[in-house]
Amino acid sequence: MEKLKDKTIVVAPMKINLAKNTHIFNEHSLIQAKISVLRDENTPSSIFRKVVEEITILLASDALSHLPLEDISVTTPICKTTGSKIAGKKMVLVPIIRAGLAMEPAMKAVVPQARTGFCGVYRDPDTSKPVPYYWKMPDDIGNRSVFILDPMLATGGSMLYTIDRLKKEHHCKSIHLMSIIAAPEGVDLIQTLHPDVEMYIAQLDEGLNCDRYIVPGLGDAGDRIYGTK
Predict the structure, then answer these.
(1) 10 Å Cβ neighbour count for 18?
(2) Which of 89, 92, 165, 224 has the most CB atoms within 10 Å of its CB?
(3) Distance separating alpha carbons of residues 203 and 223, to the nearest angstrom
(4) Contact yes or no for 197/173 (Cβ under 8 A)
């Protein structure tokens, strides 16, 4: 049993089948190179935050490519032509406080018209259960495309809480999540309970250790983003 205290050991490795709505970028060269920077324990917080934003933009290029469009008229210096804009209501970004806040500026740079809601929830260190403490969403979020932002998808508890509440309280029907590092346990949980949710994940790692941290992971993303440890 002593071996389970080794933080490098995946306690219960699991194999999962990826659903059609789960998009993993383990083979994306640029994303993988940037993830290596995040993994390095010597990477300072200033660089860590910058790379989180860069990976978020790379994920957004795929995650936003499927939004419905409608035609608009555009006049170029040469002539009039038909262009496009995002159809219907615009999107809402929902960063899970606090680590998810680091992804929000990158998304706003790409879609500045997006509104932002906030979900404050943390994982209890003893029970690994989500503990909510803050919730503020736009009134019309149920009519918009929602993108939940959290760099780490470990057990999936905080993400599940967020999705459940968005659906039950706000009747959201178009929900996407974006994470940088995920464990199979978290991916499997969301796939099973919310198969309609689109997931965009930069890296699927091996699994969870005895402390429910992702292996090899990158440590506590919030602490590394804000230099609190």
Answers:
(1) 15
(2) 92
(3) 20
(4) no
C-alpha span between 101 and 96 (Å, rounded)? 7
Hey, what CATH topology would domain 23-69+80-226 get? Rossmann fold (3.40.50)
Maximum distance among all Cα pairs of the chain, rounded to whole angstroms: 73
Q: What is the pLDDT of residue 79?
A: 97
Q: What is the pLDDT of residues 96-127, one digit of tens each?
A: 999 999 999 999 999 998 999 999 998 887 88
Single-letter residue type at 105: P
Token pair recorded at residue 97: 């406080």
Radius of gyration of the chain (CA): 18
CA angle, 111 then 112 then 113, to 5°: 90
- Look at residue 182 and give its three-state secondary structure: strand
- Location of structure tokens 């290596």: 36
Distance CA 179, CA 184 (A): 13
Alpha-carbon gap, residue 14 to 191, rounded angstroms: 14
- 3-state SS class at 60: helix
Query: Which tokens go with 19?
Result: 């659903």
Tokens 């440590």, residue?
Answer: 219
Q: Could you give the CA distance from residue 141 to residue 4 in angstroms, rounded to a whole number? A: 43
Question: Which residues participate in catalysis according to the annotation?
Answer: 123, 127, 220, 223
Using the predicted structure, report yes or no on whether residue 5 has a pLDDT greater than 70: no
* Residue 52 and residue 151 in contact, taking contact as beta carbons nearer than 8 Å: yes
Sorted by where each begins, the domain ranges of the chain are: 23-69+80-226
